[in-house]
Amino acid sequence: MALGEQGVHHLKILTAKLDEELEKMNPLEQRLALEDSSLETITKKKLKNKVKAIQT
Prior knowledge:
Oligomer: single chain
Helix content: over 70%
Radius of gyration: 12 Å
């Protein structure tokens, strides 16, 4: 699945927002959020990985 430039841009914005939210959490909350296996968390992780792959 190819993402256009606009799609990549939106993924970068979403990833930045996710990073900001993680930074606001204390270390325990961060670990729980990262370990949470909920569908939403898995989707966010996949999006972050796609953005990282696109950026490299």
